[in-house]
Specification:
The structure is a homodimer. The first copy, chain A, is α/β, with parallel strands linked by helices and about 575 residues long. The first copy, chain A, has 21 helices and 17 strands. In chain A, strand 3 (about 30-35) and strand 4 (about 35-40) form a beta hairpin. In chain A, helix 8 crosses helix 9 (about 255-265) and helix 17 (about 475-485) packs antiparallel against helix 18 (about 490-495).
């Protein structure tokens, strides 16, 4: 889906014809030059919307050939689908609410004894089509991609069973990415709504999507989502495992969890949040916090540890998990189950103890060539934000950091997309590679379609602010292109270049709805009588016309300018008489 | 106006009965304790809403006695009101649209040869009622207030002709303040609407309000605003002066400007933006910028300098302006007329050259005991934000910095309250004393009532984030109080403690509208079946009941806990059967 008439999808081809990397090209109006119109180059920006399709048939399997060509995977029967994967109502009905009717591919996994992760290839010096795709997408050298993946400083989440994705990379040397959470819950929503949210989120720029469903039809909702997603899909498998034991955390076992992980690996989930750092001995450290444990996965595992007085089975079985992930190329998102839930609890003993364990697990996963990112908070006051990234990067050897916000204050429920965008922009500037969005409904309710959009746009602007601050090559071109359009009163271009053209245009039209106002050389702030930007244009035009290319030269020309200005009638702005705005007298 | 039934205005009395400092007291529900309810202390927060009144009669003159008691002002006839002060329509009609019918006080000014500024008193070691009021309001020592004002590191904007204000202080040792801009323009709005916006803005927390009117009825709109404002009012007098010369900048003269300033001093404007740093030689430095000059006042003065090829008359007459300001206690807000209008232009030669001139003007104003703050950008990428404050603080000897945003990126018109809140929180953490809000309509249109509210709330949360980061005494108490309420599922308290209780409650009710859901021990994110916060509460309760006060002790107790947990039926959450939510099966 394309959000504005001036936007179109364009593709750059790589070394083989099936490497077609999408961009959104934004066409622009001409500038007024002193001797006639001057064309403006269209702007190409990163595109996450995917190729689009009928949701009931899913997306084309872009990567299927790449995976097959490597010759290191096998088709196999796979785990049997159990109706219980979709909860008790599905068992009762004999079907999920809306069974997936599109193509069902036979699951793939690595042949015995082989690893099929992008990290594995990168370490062997192999440049995969996924890496090439990513390099074109990021406008960088493919060697940088391969080196960063090999070193573990970046990941390309790309399950062999999710051929529909357009590969993307998460790492601090690359553009800052944004994840959007969707998913049903016990109290609300349908499969159809969740698929619509997925499409909506990627349309507005979500780089990955996490399906956090906890209600009915978990398995089938995920099938619909994965088959329709052009971006990597993440999950928190413990949520589904908990449903399988009817919400009783102490009934969880490694076997049930393992089976759920395999189920999701076969469906094509690209990364999974694993709360393996919630160790029994860390749980008591949360007792004197203001908000204790706020991570759902963290509290499930804490509950299990408490009930059994045993060490977290995700920790004790971590190597087995790595072996599974290596066969599908599923990436770890090491969950911060003990993340702070309020600014008072930030950077405390519980959080930092868990982070040290996540660092240990990062190294263990890397021994299996499994890709890893590390999750971070949450709620952090601004002065502690930098320390969060610094410690994570030092301890975890540069593994990508993936943070939720963080919220810089707790006092604004209803505005937590903003309180968290403040922390998110700051933490991304200091090195966080991916930001998990927060919607205005955070802490209050489940996001609807509008909230998803607001969350994604808010996080795109936070991520982009960080890209600009980090000096990412090319990032500022977008700002500069929009600012030039603003300076030249190209209103339609300003709308088209906005992260949200619809809202920008609607806001403009509220004050000045008439169509001619969109070509007017003024805006509603000052009205037609006087406009500050005009003066600058006078200065600029004068300098250009007189070939003045230094401040001194321009200043020398000023006396002449002064006389010319007086000749023009000394009016700082000559209002075009044809513009019908509410007649100031 | 009070925004929630749990809020009420309370007053702390100072050393004299007419020093009554307002706070908003938020009453809270009890917590559930192991042996019964535990009361929660009400929270007192800073209050800007004022005492409220019928807008047509204005507010009571709280400070009138304080000013009179000092015995250093005189009543005088004042400048004659001219109908032209309200524009050509008022002249034609013989009256403004809605003439001010409330009390008209005789203007006051300092007796000859005397200065009546708070800085003057502070330097003489005098503690004024205004200083005492501010100290109570900020919960700090009054000596700190006096010292900071004497040193120029803080200002108390308080025109002797604006007795209605509740004094407030702007300085980096105090709470970060927020300014809201209102004002009509050539294309829209009425006096009534602007007064309503003023009240609305202070209700939600605006610490000062700038009246930036540029349309009809400028004088009278301002009269209504000043008479009804419990917060200091700022203006940009060049806007009105330009109206008086029918929009032709080159027709401006020092005499017209001076007359306009006196007009506004007599009405009670507390601070004025003066673009005296836009020097002729700096104008050419903007020629190669992407967005040239974007400050309206800056471009007016640049236009004047170009037309006359003379130095800015605000600069050449600066000392005379100081003498006027000293007689009314009007504070300078030294305008950054050459501020960057896009991230590409940030921290450039034009901006920094002007800043050096503003530093020079700061020192000159201080020689007259006139209070000064210095305005700052605008649009600044995040990595250059800190440098802005550092240079301003160094060069301007610690004079308070007052910044617009800054916006951290240019690509999100429609969301510029957010792009700028990111920059605002960062710059305030580094030392900016007051933030000028930006609404969602920035760059697109004029803010309506909803936009004003969104802008104020967004900036309050940015300012508060900075207060927390700076470790301002007491700032975090608000966060902690709300977080404790969240942890204990006190929903009504969470709403009451939010910067915007209405939005918080409305968002909650969208997902879980039933009244019992507001006392439910769960939220819509996980539903009633499982709740992460419950686990933490189990841990906490266990620790408290067993007198465990160290992590080791708690861990030793864990085995016992494990057994107890199993006895409880091993369910991590026992759902209260009485809660009617959408029945998961």
């Amino acid at each position: 889906m394309t959000v504005h008439p001036s936007h179109r999808a364009v593709y750059t081809e790589g070394s083989r014809p099936d490497i077609r990397v999408p961009f959104t090209e934004i066409s622009l109006d001409d500038s007024d030059g002193p001797t006639g119109p001057i064309p403006n180059e269209p702007l190409r920006v990163y595109r996450t919307a995917g190729p689009g399709s009928d949701p009931s048939s899913g997306l084309p399997p872009l990567r299927a050939g790449w995976v097959a060509d490597r010759g290191d995977v096998e088709e196999y029967d796979g785990r049997r689908r159990a109706l219980a994967d979709d909860g008790r109502s599905a068992v009762r009905r004999g079907a999920a609410t809306a069974e997936w009717k599109g193509e069902r591919r036979t699951p793939l996994r690595a042949v015995d004894g082989v690893r099929v992760t992008q990290m594995h290839y990168a370490r062997k010096g192999v440049v995969t089509p996924e890496m090439e795709f990513v390099a074109i997408r990021e406008s960088c050298d493919v060697d940088l991609v391969r080196e960063e993946v090999a070193a573990g400083r970046a990941i390309i989440p790309a399950n062999v069973n999710h051929p529909e994705i357009e590969p993307m990379i998460i790492g601090k040397r690359f553009l800052v990415k944004v994840n959007a959470n969707i998913g049903n819950s016990a109290v609300t929503s349908s499969i159809e709504e969740e698929v619509a949210k997925l499409t909506w989120a990627t349309t507005w720029g979500a780089d990955t999507v996490m399906d956090l469903s906890t209600g009915d039809d978990i398995h089938t909702t995920r099938e619909w989502i994965v088959r329709n997603s052009p971006v990597p899909i993440g999950t928190v498998p413990i949520y589904q495992a908990l449903e399988k034991v009817d919400g009783e955390a102490d009934q969880l076992t490694w076997e049930i969890f393992r089976d759920t992980v395999v189920e999701q690996c076969e469906q094509g989930v690209d990364y999974m949040t694993i709360h393996a750092g919630v160790l029994l001995r860390y749980v008591p450290m949360t007792a004197r916090r203001i908000t204790g444990i706020v991570s759902r996965g963290g509290s499930i595992m804490a509950g299990w540890c408490l009930a059994h007085h045993q060490e977290n089975f995700l920790y004790t079985h971590f190597d087995e998990l790595c072996e599974i992930f290596a066969r599908y190329d599923v990436s770890f998102s090491l969950g911060d189950g003990l993340r702070p839930g309020c600014v008072a609890d930030a950077n405390d003993e519980a959080q930092l103890s868990e982070l040290r364990t996540l660092a240990e697990l990062t190294s263990r996963a890397w021994e299996h060539d499994v890709q890893v990112m590390v999750e971070g908070p949450g709620h952090v006051p601004l002065h502690l934000v930098e320390e969060n990234v610094r410690l994570q990067q030092e301890w975890c050897h540069g593994a990508p950091f993936y943070t939720l916000g963080p919220l810089a204050t707790d006092i604004a429920p209803g505005y937590d997309h903003i309180t968290s965008a403040i922390g998110a922009a700051a933490i991304a500037m200091h090195g966080t590679a991916m930001l998990c969005y927060v919607t205005p409904k955070e802490h209050l309710g489940l996001p609807n379609r509008d909230d998803v959009k607001t969350g994604v746009i808010t996080y795109k602007l936070a991520a982009h602010s960080a890209d600009v601050a980090k000096g990412h090559p090319g990032a500022r071109r977008w700002d500069d292109t929009l600012s030039k359009a603003r300076f030249e009163f190209r209103w339609q271009d300003q709308f088209a270049l906005s992260l949200d053209p619809h809202t920008a245009e609607a806001f403009h039209d509220e004050t000045l709805p008439a169509e001619p106002a969109k070509t007017a050389h003024f805006c509603s702030m000052c009205g037609p009588k006087f406009c500050s930007m005009r003066i600058s244009q006078d200065v600029r035009r004068y300098a250009a016309e007189h070939g003045l290319d230094s401040a001194e030269a321009i200043e020398r020309g000023m006396e002449e300018k002064s006389a010319e200005f007086a000749d023009l009638g000394k009016d700082v702005y000559l209002a075009p008489s044809s513009i019908p705005v509410g007649a100031p007298d």
